[in-house]
Amino acid sequence: MLRQAQKILKDYFGYDSFRKGQHEVIQNVLNGQDTLCVMPTGGGKSLCYQVPALALDGTTIVISPLISLMKDQVDLLRANGIQAAFINSSLTPSEIDETMMNVRNGEVKLLYIAPERLEMDSFCMALSQLNVPLIAIDEAHCISQWGHDFRPSYRAISKVLKLWNTKPTIIALTATATPTVSEDICQVLHIESEDTFITGFARDNLTFKVLVGENREKFIKNYLENNKNESGIIYAATRKAVDSLYELLLKFGISVAKYHAGMSEAERNDEQNRFLADQAQLMIATNAFGMGINKTNVRYVIHYQMPRNMESYYQEAGRAGRDGLPSECILLYSPSDEQTQRFLIDQSRDPSRIPLELEKLQRMVDYCHTEMCLQLYILQYFGEEVEVTCERCGNCCDERPSVEVTEDAQRVLSCVVRMGQKFGKTITSQVLAGSKNKKVEGFRHLSTFGILKKMSAKEIANFIEFLIAERILLVHPGQFPTIYVSEDGKDVLLGKRKVSRRVQTVKAVVKQDDP
Ligand code: ADP
Protein backbone atom coordinates (compact mmCIF):
# COMPACT_ATOMS: atom_id res chain seq x y z
CA MET A 1 0.00 0.00 0.00
CA LEU A 2 2.77 2.43 0.92
CA ARG A 3 4.58 1.73 -2.33
CA GLN A 4 1.41 2.78 -4.09
CA ALA A 5 1.31 5.94 -1.98
CA GLN A 6 4.88 6.74 -2.97
CA LYS A 7 3.95 6.31 -6.62
CA ILE A 8 0.92 8.59 -6.23
CA LEU A 9 3.14 11.21 -4.60
CA LYS A 10 5.45 11.17 -7.59
CA ASP A 11 2.87 10.75 -10.37
CA TYR A 12 0.31 13.30 -9.23
CA PHE A 13 2.25 15.75 -7.12
CA GLY A 14 5.74 15.42 -8.54
CA TYR A 15 7.46 14.96 -5.16
CA ASP A 16 10.10 12.33 -4.49
CA SER A 17 9.65 11.72 -0.81
CA PHE A 18 7.24 12.28 2.04
CA ARG A 19 8.01 14.86 4.65
CA LYS A 20 8.54 14.11 8.32
CA GLY A 21 5.24 12.81 9.67
CA GLN A 22 3.38 12.45 6.37
CA HIS A 23 4.61 8.92 5.91
CA GLU A 24 3.38 7.73 9.33
CA VAL A 25 0.03 9.48 9.03
CA ILE A 26 -0.67 8.09 5.56
CA GLN A 27 0.30 4.58 6.62
CA ASN A 28 -2.04 4.78 9.61
CA VAL A 29 -4.92 6.00 7.45
CA LEU A 30 -4.33 3.32 4.85
CA ASN A 31 -4.40 0.75 7.68
CA GLY A 32 -7.94 1.94 8.34
CA GLN A 33 -7.15 3.66 11.65
CA ASP A 34 -8.98 6.86 12.53
CA THR A 35 -6.21 9.41 12.80
CA LEU A 36 -5.53 12.88 14.19
CA CYS A 37 -2.79 14.77 12.41
CA VAL A 38 -1.45 17.92 14.08
CA MET A 39 1.07 19.64 11.86
CA PRO A 40 1.99 23.29 11.57
CA THR A 41 0.75 25.50 8.76
CA GLY A 42 2.75 24.70 5.66
CA GLY A 43 3.71 21.32 7.08
CA GLY A 44 1.97 19.42 4.30
CA LYS A 45 -1.29 18.26 5.83
CA SER A 46 -3.22 18.21 2.54
CA LEU A 47 -1.20 15.35 1.12
CA CYS A 48 -2.01 13.30 4.23
CA TYR A 49 -5.57 12.87 2.99
CA GLN A 50 -5.14 13.51 -0.72
CA VAL A 51 -2.71 10.64 -1.23
CA PRO A 52 -4.91 8.08 0.62
CA ALA A 53 -7.94 9.42 -1.27
CA LEU A 54 -6.25 8.49 -4.52
CA ALA A 55 -5.14 5.11 -3.19
CA LEU A 56 -8.60 4.08 -1.94
CA ASP A 57 -11.69 3.08 -3.92
CA GLY A 58 -14.59 5.53 -3.80
CA THR A 59 -14.97 9.23 -3.02
CA THR A 60 -13.20 10.85 -0.09
CA ILE A 61 -15.22 13.60 1.57
CA VAL A 62 -13.23 16.62 2.74
CA ILE A 63 -14.96 18.83 5.28
CA SER A 64 -13.55 22.33 5.20
CA PRO A 65 -14.83 25.57 6.73
CA LEU A 66 -13.02 27.69 4.19
CA ILE A 67 -15.72 28.12 1.57
CA SER A 68 -13.84 30.90 -0.18
CA LEU A 69 -10.85 28.64 -0.69
CA MET A 70 -12.54 25.42 -1.77
CA LYS A 71 -12.57 26.42 -5.40
CA ASP A 72 -8.84 27.22 -5.35
CA GLN A 73 -8.03 23.90 -3.69
CA VAL A 74 -10.14 21.99 -6.19
CA ASP A 75 -8.64 23.88 -9.15
CA LEU A 76 -5.16 23.04 -7.88
CA LEU A 77 -6.01 19.34 -7.65
CA ARG A 78 -7.58 19.35 -11.10
CA ALA A 79 -4.47 20.98 -12.52
CA ASN A 80 -2.61 17.92 -11.20
CA GLY A 81 -5.02 15.64 -13.04
CA ILE A 82 -7.02 14.69 -9.94
CA GLN A 83 -10.80 14.39 -10.10
CA ALA A 84 -12.00 16.81 -7.43
CA ALA A 85 -15.17 18.83 -6.85
CA PHE A 86 -16.79 20.98 -4.19
CA ILE A 87 -20.26 21.65 -2.92
CA ASN A 88 -21.06 24.79 -1.00
CA SER A 89 -23.47 27.71 -0.94
CA SER A 90 -21.75 29.38 -3.90
CA LEU A 91 -23.25 26.76 -6.26
CA THR A 92 -26.76 26.79 -7.71
CA PRO A 93 -29.06 23.80 -6.98
CA SER A 94 -28.60 22.52 -10.50
CA GLU A 95 -24.80 22.75 -10.20
CA ILE A 96 -25.03 20.79 -6.97
CA ASP A 97 -27.19 18.14 -8.67
CA GLU A 98 -24.68 17.87 -11.48
CA THR A 99 -21.77 17.51 -9.08
CA MET A 100 -23.61 14.81 -7.12
CA MET A 101 -24.29 12.95 -10.35
CA ASN A 102 -20.59 13.03 -11.22
CA VAL A 103 -19.84 11.71 -7.76
CA ARG A 104 -22.36 8.87 -8.14
CA ASN A 105 -20.80 8.02 -11.50
CA GLY A 106 -17.46 7.53 -9.77
CA GLU A 107 -15.93 10.57 -11.43
CA VAL A 108 -14.88 12.36 -8.26
CA LYS A 109 -12.10 11.16 -5.96
CA LEU A 110 -12.21 14.12 -3.57
CA LEU A 111 -15.39 15.99 -2.71
CA TYR A 112 -14.97 19.16 -0.63
CA ILE A 113 -17.98 20.24 1.40
CA ALA A 114 -18.74 22.90 4.00
CA PRO A 115 -19.71 21.61 7.46
CA GLU A 116 -23.11 23.33 7.35
CA ARG A 117 -24.12 20.94 4.59
CA LEU A 118 -23.96 18.05 7.05
CA GLU A 119 -26.90 19.56 8.91
CA MET A 120 -29.17 19.01 5.87
CA ASP A 121 -31.00 15.68 5.97
CA SER A 122 -31.44 15.46 2.21
CA PHE A 123 -27.72 15.93 1.67
CA CYS A 124 -26.87 13.27 4.25
CA MET A 125 -29.28 10.87 2.55
CA ALA A 126 -27.45 11.42 -0.73
CA LEU A 127 -24.10 10.89 0.99
CA SER A 128 -25.23 7.62 2.51
CA GLN A 129 -25.70 6.18 -1.00
CA LEU A 130 -22.06 6.77 -1.88
CA ASN A 131 -18.98 4.67 -1.45
CA VAL A 132 -16.99 6.79 1.02
CA PRO A 133 -13.75 5.16 2.25
CA LEU A 134 -12.35 8.23 4.00
CA ILE A 135 -13.58 11.44 5.58
CA ALA A 136 -11.01 14.20 6.03
CA ILE A 137 -11.86 16.87 8.56
CA ASP A 138 -9.79 19.94 7.84
CA GLU A 139 -9.29 22.66 10.51
CA ALA A 140 -10.43 20.02 12.99
CA HIS A 141 -9.93 22.34 15.99
CA CYS A 142 -13.29 23.86 14.95
CA ILE A 143 -14.91 20.74 16.42
CA SER A 144 -13.63 21.50 19.91
CA GLN A 145 -15.24 23.98 22.19
CA TRP A 146 -11.79 24.48 23.76
CA GLY A 147 -10.39 25.53 20.40
CA HIS A 148 -10.11 29.17 19.43
CA ASP A 149 -12.56 28.86 16.57
CA PHE A 150 -15.39 26.56 17.64
CA ARG A 151 -18.02 25.92 14.93
CA PRO A 152 -21.15 24.19 16.20
CA SER A 153 -21.92 22.70 12.77
CA TYR A 154 -18.73 20.64 13.07
CA ARG A 155 -20.49 18.63 15.75
CA ALA A 156 -22.80 17.22 13.05
CA ILE A 157 -19.85 15.16 11.86
CA SER A 158 -20.40 12.54 14.57
CA LYS A 159 -23.93 11.93 13.32
CA VAL A 160 -22.82 11.70 9.70
CA LEU A 161 -20.35 8.95 10.52
CA LYS A 162 -23.30 6.67 11.29
CA LEU A 163 -24.74 6.97 7.77
CA TRP A 164 -22.90 4.01 6.37
CA ASN A 165 -22.91 0.33 7.33
CA THR A 166 -19.15 0.33 7.16
CA LYS A 167 -17.87 3.45 8.85
CA PRO A 168 -15.41 5.40 6.71
CA THR A 169 -11.94 5.98 8.13
CA ILE A 170 -11.53 9.47 9.56
CA ILE A 171 -8.58 11.75 9.39
CA ALA A 172 -8.81 14.97 11.39
CA LEU A 173 -6.24 17.63 10.58
CA THR A 174 -5.29 20.85 12.31
CA ALA A 175 -2.36 23.20 12.69
CA THR A 176 -3.33 24.64 16.01
CA ALA A 177 -4.29 22.16 18.66
CA THR A 178 -3.11 22.42 22.23
CA PRO A 179 -3.09 19.11 24.16
CA THR A 180 -6.56 19.92 25.55
CA VAL A 181 -7.97 20.54 22.09
CA SER A 182 -6.34 17.38 20.68
CA GLU A 183 -7.89 15.33 23.47
CA ASP A 184 -11.28 16.87 22.83
CA ILE A 185 -11.11 16.16 19.08
CA CYS A 186 -10.16 12.56 19.85
CA GLN A 187 -13.03 12.22 22.28
CA VAL A 188 -15.66 13.62 19.93
CA LEU A 189 -14.45 11.54 16.97
CA HIS A 190 -13.47 8.43 18.98
CA ILE A 191 -9.87 8.55 17.86
CA GLU A 192 -7.44 6.55 20.02
CA SER A 193 -4.62 8.55 21.56
CA GLU A 194 -2.02 6.33 19.88
CA ASP A 195 -3.47 7.41 16.54
CA THR A 196 -2.58 11.04 17.20
CA PHE A 197 0.41 12.28 15.25
CA ILE A 198 1.87 15.59 16.35
CA THR A 199 4.74 16.28 14.07
CA GLY A 200 7.26 18.81 13.11
CA PHE A 201 5.89 21.81 14.88
CA ALA A 202 9.35 23.26 14.83
CA ARG A 203 9.90 25.41 11.78
CA ASP A 204 13.64 25.45 11.58
CA ASN A 205 13.76 28.27 9.05
CA LEU A 206 11.76 30.69 11.22
CA THR A 207 13.39 33.10 13.67
CA PHE A 208 11.07 34.38 16.39
CA LYS A 209 11.53 37.71 18.11
CA VAL A 210 9.54 39.77 20.56
CA LEU A 211 10.41 43.46 20.67
CA VAL A 212 9.13 45.33 23.68
CA GLY A 213 8.60 49.06 23.72
CA GLU A 214 9.72 49.82 20.17
CA ASN A 215 8.41 52.90 18.43
CA ARG A 216 6.40 50.76 16.07
CA GLU A 217 6.12 53.12 13.12
CA LYS A 218 9.81 53.87 13.21
CA PHE A 219 10.63 50.19 13.49
CA ILE A 220 8.48 49.29 10.48
CA LYS A 221 10.00 52.06 8.36
CA ASN A 222 13.53 50.93 9.20
CA TYR A 223 12.67 47.31 8.69
CA LEU A 224 11.18 47.93 5.27
CA GLU A 225 14.18 50.03 4.33
CA ASN A 226 16.41 47.04 5.11
CA ASN A 227 14.15 44.48 3.44
CA LYS A 228 13.24 46.42 0.33
CA ASN A 229 12.48 43.72 -2.16
CA GLU A 230 11.17 41.09 0.19
CA SER A 231 7.58 40.01 0.51
CA GLY A 232 6.03 40.29 3.96
CA ILE A 233 2.87 40.52 6.03
CA ILE A 234 2.08 42.91 8.87
CA TYR A 235 -0.78 41.86 11.12
CA ALA A 236 -2.54 44.55 13.14
CA ALA A 237 -5.24 43.95 15.75
CA THR A 238 -7.92 46.32 14.43
CA ARG A 239 -9.23 47.57 11.10
CA LYS A 240 -8.41 51.10 12.15
CA ALA A 241 -4.79 50.18 12.76
CA VAL A 242 -4.61 48.48 9.34
CA ASP A 243 -6.04 51.56 7.61
CA SER A 244 -3.76 54.05 9.29
CA LEU A 245 -0.62 51.99 8.76
CA TYR A 246 -1.60 51.46 5.14
CA GLU A 247 -1.96 55.22 4.56
CA LEU A 248 1.33 55.88 6.27
CA LEU A 249 3.29 53.36 4.21
CA LEU A 250 1.67 54.46 0.97
CA LYS A 251 3.08 57.91 1.68
CA PHE A 252 6.51 56.36 1.97
CA GLY A 253 6.17 54.91 -1.51
CA ILE A 254 5.97 51.29 -0.40
CA SER A 255 3.98 48.93 -2.62
CA VAL A 256 1.45 47.87 -0.08
CA ALA A 257 -1.89 46.04 -0.02
CA LYS A 258 -4.43 45.82 2.78
CA TYR A 259 -7.08 43.38 3.88
CA HIS A 260 -9.74 43.44 6.56
CA ALA A 261 -13.35 42.45 7.03
CA GLY A 262 -14.55 46.05 6.66
CA MET A 263 -13.67 46.02 2.96
CA SER A 264 -15.94 44.69 0.21
CA GLU A 265 -15.29 41.19 -1.08
CA ALA A 266 -14.16 42.57 -4.45
CA GLU A 267 -11.70 44.94 -2.79
CA ARG A 268 -10.33 42.19 -0.61
CA ASN A 269 -9.89 39.85 -3.59
CA ASP A 270 -8.10 42.54 -5.56
CA GLU A 271 -5.76 43.33 -2.72
CA GLN A 272 -5.06 39.67 -2.03
CA ASN A 273 -4.33 39.00 -5.69
CA ARG A 274 -1.94 41.94 -5.92
CA PHE A 275 -0.04 40.51 -2.98
CA LEU A 276 -0.07 36.94 -4.28
CA ALA A 277 1.19 38.11 -7.68
CA ASP A 278 4.03 40.09 -6.04
CA GLN A 279 2.59 43.37 -7.34
CA ALA A 280 2.38 44.52 -3.74
CA GLN A 281 5.41 43.76 -1.63
CA LEU A 282 3.66 44.08 1.67
CA MET A 283 0.26 43.03 2.99
CA ILE A 284 -1.16 44.85 6.01
CA ALA A 285 -4.08 42.94 7.43
CA THR A 286 -6.18 41.90 10.35
CA ASN A 287 -6.44 38.22 11.19
CA ALA A 288 -9.16 38.00 8.50
CA PHE A 289 -6.32 37.52 6.02
CA GLY A 290 -4.35 34.43 5.31
CA MET A 291 -6.37 31.25 5.88
CA GLY A 292 -5.34 28.79 3.20
CA ILE A 293 -3.17 31.32 1.38
CA ASN A 294 -0.27 29.46 -0.15
CA LYS A 295 2.27 32.16 -0.88
CA THR A 296 5.61 30.55 -0.35
CA ASN A 297 8.05 33.47 -0.50
CA VAL A 298 6.83 35.48 2.50
CA ARG A 299 10.11 36.49 4.17
CA TYR A 300 8.71 38.08 7.29
CA VAL A 301 5.54 38.34 9.34
CA ILE A 302 5.40 41.27 11.72
CA HIS A 303 2.70 41.55 14.37
CA TYR A 304 2.10 45.22 14.92
CA GLN A 305 0.24 44.33 18.10
CA MET A 306 0.05 41.21 20.18
CA PRO A 307 -2.65 38.80 18.93
CA ARG A 308 -5.18 37.24 21.26
CA ASN A 309 -3.72 33.77 21.66
CA MET A 310 -0.78 31.56 20.75
CA GLU A 311 -2.85 29.56 18.29
CA SER A 312 -3.56 32.65 16.21
CA TYR A 313 -0.01 33.85 16.60
CA TYR A 314 1.61 30.65 15.39
CA GLN A 315 -0.84 30.26 12.55
CA GLU A 316 -0.25 33.81 11.35
CA ALA A 317 3.50 33.87 11.95
CA GLY A 318 3.72 30.46 10.28
CA ARG A 319 2.76 32.05 6.97
CA ALA A 320 6.37 33.16 6.70
CA GLY A 321 8.90 30.93 4.99
CA ARG A 322 6.69 28.25 3.53
CA ASP A 323 9.42 27.67 0.96
CA GLY A 324 11.79 26.63 3.74
CA LEU A 325 14.10 29.65 3.37
CA PRO A 326 15.13 31.69 6.42
CA SER A 327 12.33 34.06 7.47
CA GLU A 328 11.54 36.26 10.46
CA CYS A 329 8.51 36.42 12.75
CA ILE A 330 8.57 39.58 14.83
CA LEU A 331 6.07 40.56 17.46
CA LEU A 332 6.00 44.22 18.51
CA TYR A 333 4.65 44.21 22.03
CA SER A 334 3.33 46.99 24.18
CA PRO A 335 1.53 46.50 27.50
CA SER A 336 -1.51 48.31 26.06
CA ASP A 337 -1.97 45.40 23.60
CA GLU A 338 -3.35 43.32 26.43
CA GLN A 339 -6.07 45.90 27.03
CA THR A 340 -6.95 45.93 23.32
CA GLN A 341 -7.32 42.17 23.31
CA ARG A 342 -9.32 42.15 26.55
CA PHE A 343 -11.68 44.62 24.97
CA LEU A 344 -12.05 42.43 21.85
CA ILE A 345 -12.62 39.33 23.99
CA ASP A 346 -15.27 41.15 26.02
CA GLN A 347 -17.12 41.89 22.79
CA SER A 348 -17.15 38.24 21.74
CA ARG A 349 -20.40 36.65 20.72
CA ASP A 350 -20.37 33.84 23.23
CA PRO A 351 -19.83 35.07 26.82
CA SER A 352 -19.37 31.51 28.10
CA ARG A 353 -16.05 31.42 26.21
CA ILE A 354 -14.61 34.52 27.84
CA PRO A 355 -12.79 32.77 30.74
CA LEU A 356 -11.09 30.38 28.32
CA GLU A 357 -10.14 33.22 26.00
CA LEU A 358 -8.67 35.20 28.89
CA GLU A 359 -6.63 32.19 29.96
CA LYS A 360 -5.27 31.88 26.42
CA LEU A 361 -4.55 35.61 26.34
CA GLN A 362 -2.45 35.23 29.48
CA ARG A 363 -0.29 32.59 27.82
CA MET A 364 0.18 34.98 24.91
CA VAL A 365 1.24 37.76 27.29
CA ASP A 366 3.63 35.28 28.92
CA TYR A 367 5.20 34.63 25.51
CA CYS A 368 6.01 38.35 25.32
CA HIS A 369 7.74 38.29 28.70
CA THR A 370 9.43 34.94 28.87
CA GLU A 371 13.19 34.70 28.69
CA MET A 372 13.14 31.08 27.55
CA CYS A 373 13.73 30.03 23.93
CA LEU A 374 10.70 31.31 22.02
CA GLN A 375 10.53 28.31 19.74
CA LEU A 376 10.63 26.01 22.75
CA TYR A 377 7.84 28.02 24.40
CA ILE A 378 5.69 27.57 21.27
CA LEU A 379 6.43 23.87 20.91
CA GLN A 380 5.70 23.17 24.57
CA TYR A 381 2.49 25.19 24.36
CA PHE A 382 1.34 22.86 21.60
CA GLY A 383 2.32 19.79 23.58
CA GLU A 384 5.47 18.70 21.82
CA GLU A 385 7.87 17.11 24.27
CA VAL A 386 11.10 18.88 23.42
CA GLU A 387 13.87 20.50 25.41
CA VAL A 388 16.31 21.64 22.73
CA THR A 389 16.63 25.42 22.31
CA CYS A 390 16.62 26.87 18.80
CA GLU A 391 19.71 29.09 19.16
CA ARG A 392 18.19 31.53 16.67
CA CYS A 393 15.35 33.36 18.38
CA GLY A 394 15.48 36.73 20.06
CA ASN A 395 15.86 35.14 23.49
CA CYS A 396 18.51 32.57 22.52
CA CYS A 397 20.54 35.37 20.92
CA ASP A 398 19.94 37.92 23.67
CA GLU A 399 23.37 39.03 24.79
CA ARG A 400 22.29 41.12 27.77
CA PRO A 401 23.74 39.69 30.95
CA SER A 402 21.47 38.01 33.51
CA VAL A 403 21.47 39.36 37.03
CA GLU A 404 20.01 37.93 40.17
CA VAL A 405 16.77 39.63 41.17
CA THR A 406 15.66 37.26 43.92
CA GLU A 407 15.34 39.98 46.55
CA ASP A 408 13.19 42.20 44.36
CA ALA A 409 11.06 39.18 43.49
CA GLN A 410 10.61 38.49 47.21
CA ARG A 411 9.53 42.10 47.74
CA VAL A 412 6.89 41.76 45.05
CA LEU A 413 5.69 38.41 46.36
CA SER A 414 5.41 39.53 49.95
CA CYS A 415 3.49 42.60 48.84
CA VAL A 416 1.09 40.39 46.88
CA VAL A 417 0.59 38.26 50.00
CA ARG A 418 0.07 41.31 52.23
CA MET A 419 -2.54 42.63 49.82
CA GLY A 420 -4.45 39.39 50.31
CA GLN A 421 -3.72 38.07 46.76
CA LYS A 422 -6.88 39.84 45.66
CA PHE A 423 -5.55 42.60 43.40
CA GLY A 424 -4.25 43.05 39.88
CA LYS A 425 -0.79 43.90 38.70
CA THR A 426 -1.40 47.63 38.16
CA ILE A 427 -2.50 48.34 41.73
CA THR A 428 0.19 46.05 43.11
CA SER A 429 2.85 47.90 41.10
CA GLN A 430 1.61 51.24 42.39
CA VAL A 431 1.72 50.00 45.98
CA LEU A 432 5.27 48.72 45.52
CA ALA A 433 6.31 52.00 43.91
CA GLY A 434 4.72 53.96 46.76
CA SER A 435 2.50 55.84 44.32
CA LYS A 436 0.61 58.97 45.34
CA ASN A 437 -2.44 57.69 43.44
CA LYS A 438 -5.56 57.94 45.62
CA LYS A 439 -6.55 54.40 44.73
CA VAL A 440 -3.65 52.95 46.71
CA GLU A 441 -4.02 55.18 49.75
CA GLY A 442 -5.62 52.35 51.67
CA PHE A 443 -2.40 50.34 51.40
CA ARG A 444 -0.10 52.95 52.95
CA HIS A 445 0.00 51.05 56.20
CA LEU A 446 1.55 47.98 54.56
CA SER A 447 5.23 47.42 55.25
CA THR A 448 5.66 46.74 51.55
CA PHE A 449 4.24 50.11 50.49
CA GLY A 450 6.95 51.84 48.43
CA ILE A 451 9.40 49.01 49.07
CA LEU A 452 10.42 49.05 45.38
CA LYS A 453 10.40 52.81 44.91
CA LYS A 454 13.75 52.64 43.12
CA MET A 455 11.64 51.47 40.15
CA SER A 456 8.70 53.21 38.45
CA ALA A 457 5.25 51.61 38.65
CA LYS A 458 5.57 50.76 34.94
CA GLU A 459 8.90 49.03 35.47
CA ILE A 460 7.41 47.08 38.35
CA ALA A 461 4.40 46.06 36.24
CA ASN A 462 6.84 44.80 33.64
CA PHE A 463 8.73 42.88 36.32
CA ILE A 464 5.45 41.37 37.52
CA GLU A 465 4.72 40.24 33.93
CA PHE A 466 8.11 38.57 33.94
CA LEU A 467 7.34 36.80 37.24
CA ILE A 468 4.03 35.62 35.75
CA ALA A 469 5.78 34.32 32.62
CA GLU A 470 8.16 32.46 34.95
CA ARG A 471 5.14 31.01 36.77
CA ILE A 472 6.33 32.53 40.06
CA LEU A 473 3.14 34.53 40.18
CA LEU A 474 -0.10 33.22 38.71
CA VAL A 475 -3.18 35.03 37.45
CA HIS A 476 -6.81 34.42 38.20
CA PRO A 477 -8.16 35.54 34.84
CA GLY A 478 -11.43 37.43 34.68
CA GLN A 479 -12.72 40.87 34.09
CA PHE A 480 -10.45 42.13 36.87
CA PRO A 481 -7.57 39.66 36.87
CA THR A 482 -5.83 39.19 40.20
CA ILE A 483 -2.39 37.82 40.96
CA TYR A 484 -1.34 35.25 43.51
CA VAL A 485 1.79 33.40 44.55
CA SER A 486 2.41 29.97 42.98
CA GLU A 487 4.14 27.00 44.63
CA ASP A 488 7.35 28.08 42.87
CA GLY A 489 6.74 31.57 44.20
CA LYS A 490 6.50 30.22 47.74
CA ASP A 491 9.93 28.62 47.22
CA VAL A 492 11.27 32.02 46.17
CA LEU A 493 9.79 33.61 49.30
CA LEU A 494 11.39 30.91 51.45
CA GLY A 495 14.77 31.48 49.79
CA LYS A 496 14.75 27.97 48.29
CA ARG A 497 14.77 29.27 44.73
CA LYS A 498 16.69 32.05 43.06
CA VAL A 499 15.39 34.31 40.28
CA SER A 500 17.54 35.77 37.51
CA ARG A 501 16.56 38.21 34.83
CA ARG A 502 18.24 39.91 31.92
CA VAL A 503 19.32 43.48 32.55
CA GLN A 504 16.43 45.69 31.42
CA THR A 505 16.78 48.42 28.86
CA VAL A 506 14.89 51.65 29.41
CA LYS A 507 12.72 51.39 26.33
CA ALA A 508 11.04 48.24 27.60
CA VAL A 509 8.74 50.40 29.68
CA VAL A 510 8.37 53.69 27.82
CA LYS A 511 5.00 54.78 26.54
CA GLN A 512 3.97 53.44 23.14
CA ASP A 513 2.96 55.15 19.95
CA ASP A 514 -0.30 53.33 19.52
CA PRO A 515 -2.07 53.97 16.24
P1 ADP B 1 -0.75 22.71 5.27
O1 ADP B 1 -2.09 22.29 4.77
O2 ADP B 1 -0.21 21.81 6.33
O3 ADP B 1 -0.69 24.15 5.67
P2 ADP B 1 0.05 22.17 2.60
O4 ADP B 1 -0.54 20.83 2.54
O5 ADP B 1 -0.64 23.28 1.90
O6 ADP B 1 0.30 22.59 4.09
O7 ADP B 1 1.55 22.06 2.10
C1 ADP B 1 2.43 23.18 2.11
C2 ADP B 1 3.35 23.15 0.90
O8 ADP B 1 4.25 22.06 1.01
C3 ADP B 1 2.58 22.95 -0.40
O9 ADP B 1 3.13 23.81 -1.37
C4 ADP B 1 2.83 21.49 -0.72
O10 ADP B 1 2.76 21.24 -2.10
C5 ADP B 1 4.24 21.28 -0.18
N1 ADP B 1 4.50 19.86 0.18
C6 ADP B 1 3.71 19.05 0.91
N2 ADP B 1 4.25 17.81 1.04
C7 ADP B 1 5.42 17.84 0.37
C8 ADP B 1 6.45 16.86 0.12
N3 ADP B 1 6.38 15.62 0.60
N4 ADP B 1 7.51 17.26 -0.62
C9 ADP B 1 7.60 18.52 -1.09
N5 ADP B 1 6.67 19.47 -0.91
C10 ADP B 1 5.59 19.15 -0.19
Automatic annotation (TrEMBL):
Kindly give the InterPro entries that the UniProt entry links to this protein: DEAD/DEAH_box_helicase_dom, DNA_helicase_ATP-dep_RecQ, DNA_helicase_ATP-dep_RecQ_bac, Helicase_ATP-bd, Helicase_C-like, HRDC-like_sf, HRDC_dom, HRDC_dom_sf
What Enzyme Commission number(s) does the record list for this chain? 5.6.2.4
Offer one Pfam family short name for this entry: Helicase_C
UniProt GO molecular function: 3'-5' DNA helicase activity; ATP binding; DNA binding; four-way junction helicase activity; hydrolase activity; metal ion binding
Which residues does the UniProt record annotate as the domain Helicase ATP-binding? 26-195
Q: Cite the Gene3D superfamilies for this sequence.
A: HRDC domain, P-loop containing nucleotide triphosphate hydrolases, Winged helix-like DNA-binding domain superfamily/Winged helix DNA-binding domain
Tell me which PROSITE patterns the record gives.
HELICASE_ATP_BIND_1 (PS51192), HELICASE_CTER (PS51194), HRDC (PS50967)
Catalytic EC class: isomerase
Cofactor list: Zn(2+); Mg(2+)
Reaction catalyzed: Couples ATP hydrolysis with the unwinding of duplex DNA by translocating in the 3'-5' direction
Q: What's a GO biological-process term for it?
A: DNA replication
Q: Name one GO cellular component term.
A: replisome
Domain (Helicase C-terminal): give its ranges: 215-362
Keyword tags: ATP-binding, DNA damage, DNA recombination, DNA repair, DNA-binding, Helicase, Hydrolase, Isomerase, Metal-binding, Nucleotide-binding, Zinc
The record's family statement is: Belongs to the helicase family. RecQ subfamily.
Output the NCBIfam families linked to this UniProt entry: recQ, recQ_fam
The UniProt entry, under PANTHER family, shows: ATP-DEPENDENT DNA HELICASE Q1, DNA HELICASE RECQ FAMILY MEMBER
Instruction: Output this protein's name.
Output: DNA helicase RecQ
